[in-house]
């Protein structure tokens, strides 16, 4: 196997890298917001349909990305419910855009934040929340000042896993955003294209970079989850 | 203070059912709920703070209804203005002693007001916590943790102070010292209190009236003054009650 180091200023390498960082970064922010909100609702309240909502939030972790991509096409595609509304109201189309890739990556990655944040929030001692209530705090202030700070390591480690997952997203992104070099081609799509085109040097470099980033993230995550206090 | 309570609550844990029937009225300023563990005294305290919702009944304090099942009143904990010292203190582990004490005074965004900041410093002084004000709770001794918990509860100027076995986490010599200390600072803050304990020494140090619990029910109510006037020893009465409970 020959690792041919390619020119790092080469657009064939640089474009997917920049796009991937942009897509994965925004998808991580989206995942944190949706994942923590869902985790808070499920950890905090008991209501009918709670188990169903939990299953729905976990589903993207176990479903084939192509199936998720198909669902996204149904909803945000040109003839989808949300897609049509966006098109008519704002003139926005998400299909075959990098914004569409962000949505695909968010849906695939947010269960990682959700799972990790829920476990962390449920691990926050009830007595701290009760103590904050006796000190006059409402539920929202209590969440921001007690629950979230005490669960923050779980939330951050979930966010890091979500970033890694979003960076490696392939199936759903391909279905929603396609594989347009320079526009929607992320690193993992670029690997596929490079292999298809027989460009082993580029493929090897891209694979190496993705692997290194993922290993760093996993090591940092396990460090974060070590107990404290 | 005028305090009236009459509540029932059915609790299930595993296959066991526990029925709490709690009722007492008092005008004394220092009330001790006394009884063996599992007798319902802490549940009653939690209900007073609003952390446990009774099935039926009412809780009234100085003319204010905190809970009334018939009228549909259930004032949320944050609006009951009670200070609560937890058995394990429940100090926020991510905050320093100073931040813990100022916790209830700080707005969600922004800093403590000047007046509040001065009051927090005063409490740190009064409770002898100056040396550890910048430490996190994990670095404190048991006595320092208890003082921090008490200062935190008093900082928001509650109308009623609730103490759940405040000395049980301390070893015996420290317990005696802290008992005297707490008794002194409560006198100087002059705030009505309800304390839960299973230690008859603590009853003697704090109680004006004593509510004795057994198996989820109020067994007896004593007034410390009346017991003293009758020439009997409160400790003996309580010892007999404990023997009955375990016998």
Walk me through the structure:
The complex is a heterodimer of chains A (229) and B (247). Chain A is mostly helical. Chain A contains 10 helices and no strands. Chain A has helices at 11-44, 50-62, 65-76, 81-90, 98-122, 126-134, 139-167, 171-177, 187-196, 200-224. In chain A, helix 6 runs antiparallel to helix 7 (139-167) and helix 9 (187-196) packs antiparallel against helix 10. Chain A is globular, with a radius of gyration of 20 Å. With 247 residues, chain B is of the alpha/beta class. Chain B has 2 domains: 1-81 and 159-219, Rossmann fold; 91-156, no CATH class. Helix content of chain B is 35%, strand content 27%. Chain B is built from 8 helices and 11 strands. Chain B has helices spanning 41-49, 97-102, 114-126, 142-155, 172-189, 200-206, 224-229, 234-246; strands at residues 3-13, 16-26, 30-34, 56-61, 64-68, 73-74, 82-85, 160-164, 193-197, 209-214, 217-223. A 6-stranded mixed beta sheet of chain B has the order 7-8-9-3-10-11, with helices on both faces. Chain B is globular and about 50 Å long. Classes of the chains: A mainly alpha (229), B alpha/beta (247).
What are the defining features of this structure?
heterodimer, A: 229 residues, mainly alpha, MetI-like fold, 10 helices, B: 247 residues, alpha/beta, Rossmann fold, 2 domains, six-stranded mixed beta sheet, five-stranded antiparallel beta sheet, 8 helices
Topology, please?
The complex is a heterodimer of chains A (229) and B (247).
Chain A: H1 11-44, H2 50-62, H3 65-76, H4 81-90, H5 98-122, H6 126-134, H7 139-167, H8 171-177, H9 187-196, H10 200-224
Helix pairs in contact in A: 1-5, 1-7, 2-5, 3-8, 5-7, 5-8, 6-7, 7-10, 9-10
Chain B: E1 3-13, E2 16-26, E3 30-34, H1 41-49, E4 56-61, E5 64-68, E6 73-74, E7 82-85, H2 97-102, H3 114-126, H4 142-155, E8 160-164, H5 172-189, E9 193-197, H6 200-206, E10 209-214, E11 217-223, H7 224-229, H8 234-246
């Amino acid at each position: 196997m020959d690792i041919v180091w390619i020119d790092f200023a080469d657009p064939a390498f640089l474009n997917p890298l920049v796009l991937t960082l942009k897509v994965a970064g925004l998808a991580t922010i989206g995942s944190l917001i949706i994942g923590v909100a869902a985790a808070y609702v499920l950890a905090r309240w008991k209501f009918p349909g709670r188990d169903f909502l939990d299953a729905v939030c976990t589903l993207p972790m176990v479903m084939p990305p192509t199936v998720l991509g198909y669902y996204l096409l149904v909803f945000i595609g040109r003839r989808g419910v949300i897609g049509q509304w966006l098109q008519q109201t704002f003139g926005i189309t998400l299909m075959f855009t990098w914004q569409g890739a962000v949505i695909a990556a968010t849906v695939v990655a947010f269960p990682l934040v959700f799972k990790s944040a829920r476990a962390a929030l449920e691990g926050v001692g009830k007595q701290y929340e009760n103590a904050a209530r006796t000190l006059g705090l409402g539920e929202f202030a209590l969440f921001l000042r007690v629950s979230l700070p005490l669960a923050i390591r779980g939330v951050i480690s979930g966010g890091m896993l979500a970033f890694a997952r979003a960076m490696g997203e392939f199936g759903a992104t391909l279905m929603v955003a396609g594989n347009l070099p320079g526009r929607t081609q992320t690193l993992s799509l670029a690997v596929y294209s490079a292999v298809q085109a027989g460009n082993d040097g580029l493929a090897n470099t891209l694979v190496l970079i993705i692997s290194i980033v993922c290993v760093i993230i996993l090591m940092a995550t396990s460090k974060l989850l070590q107990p404290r206090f | 203070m005028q305090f009236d309570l009459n509540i029932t609550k059915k609790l299930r844990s595993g296959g066991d059912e526990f029925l709490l029937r709690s009722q007492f009225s008092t005008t004394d300023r220092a009330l001790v709920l006394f009884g063996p563990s599992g007798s319902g005294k802490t549940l009653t305290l939690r209900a007073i703070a609003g952390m446990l919702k009774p099935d039926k009944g009412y809780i009234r304090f100085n003319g204010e209804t905190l809970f009334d099942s018939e009228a549909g009143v259930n004032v949320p904990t944050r609006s009951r203005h009670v200070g609560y010292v937890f058995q394990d203190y429940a100090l926020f582990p991510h905050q320093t002693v100073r931040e813990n004490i100022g916790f209830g005074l700080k707005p969600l965004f922004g800093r403590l007001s000047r007046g509040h900041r001065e009051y927090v410093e005063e409490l740190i002084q009064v409770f002898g916590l100056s040396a550890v004000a910048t430490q996190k709770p994990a670095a404190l001794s048991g006595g320092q943790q208890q003082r921090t918990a008490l200062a935190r509860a008093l900082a928001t100027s509650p109308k009623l102070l609730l103490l759940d076995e405040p000395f049980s986490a301390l070893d015996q010599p420290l317990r005696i010292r802290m008992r005297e200390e707490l008794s002194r600072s409560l006198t100087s803050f002059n705030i009505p209190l309800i304390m839960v304990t299973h230690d008859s020494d603590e009853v003697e140090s704090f109680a004006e009236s004593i509510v004795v619990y057994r198996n989820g029910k109020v067994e007896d109510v004593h007034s410390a003054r009346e017991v003293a006037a009758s020439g009997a020893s409160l400790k003996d009465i309580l010892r007999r009650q404990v023997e009955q409970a375990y016998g």
